[in-house]
Amino acid sequence: xxxxxxxxxxxxxxxxxxxxxxxxxxxxxxxxxxxxxxxxxxxxxxxxxxxxxxxxxxxxxxxxxxxxxxxxxxxxxxxxxxxxxxxxxxxxxxxxxxxxxxxxxxxxxxxxxxxxxxxxxxxxxxxxxxxxxxxxxxxxxxxxxxxxxxxxxxxxxxxxxxxxxxxxxxxxxxxxxxxxxxxxxxxxxxxxxxxxxxxxxxxxxxxxxxxxxxxxxxxxxxxxxxxxxxxxxxxxxxxxxxxxxxxxxxxxxxxxxxxxxxxxxxxxxxxxxxxxxxxxxxxxxxxxxxxxxxxxxxxxxxxxxxxxxxxxxxxxxxxxxxxxxxxxxxxxxxxx
Length: 336
Fold this sequence. Notes:
two-stranded antiparallel ribbon; alpha+beta; 14 strands; Extracellular Endonuclease, Chain A; eight-stranded mixed beta sheet; globular; single chain; 8 helices
């Protein structure tokens, strides 16, 4: 009897010790996983902000990442969540999350449509930039796509305070000018319909510009797909300074409608075209928002890409090494 009891005690003790060791190993594994996640989340450099958030390559960015940027906002909040939920000892919230406890007053609105990406300027009610990817295949004529069925519409994803509406343009003499051109998105009716959201629109002079010279530039970019495998296009408005009679420089522009939609002084288009063997050529254009003689060659409007970057406050194709570019505006790049 005594031997039997002794064996039972030893057996129970073994189970208890085994369970204790199992618990210790499990806890260590969980801590290691939490540490890895936290380390990954805390790596909020410009090249590796979050392992769970994929960065869209090639899109223009506004300078570099700062402490109060949208990326760091995500990093801080997600890090705090991991600390509270996973760590056995709650960590003190970061200083940034304390300061911005009740939200950021604004971040640049980026919206991804089915066939283009857009950053919206809520103050001026026009896009900051619009980004497109064109190929010969995506531009094939589709008899089932009918532009006449499209109607300009408010973008309800934009807060009502910052939207432009159709009545803003009515009677102003300005066209509702596409930044992502309707003719670039003819794969299906839905794609072309989405180019008619007013978040993709800016006021443009009609006769002599939107319907003529600007349209020539859009057609030229589409034609590039016959030579290049991939064509990446970034388009947007500019508000450039001019010297006044007093000799000083001023940025002056008209606003239209009840929502004070800004009328850009100029528009830009930056293109990177990729050959079948992955050679890259870049072209950059700035055109004034005014009637232009339709016989004016498009090359007249070519400018150094960095001049647009400085004026727009954007960095184009920031993940593309400039030494990979073969030609800029038709001339051999000095950076190769």
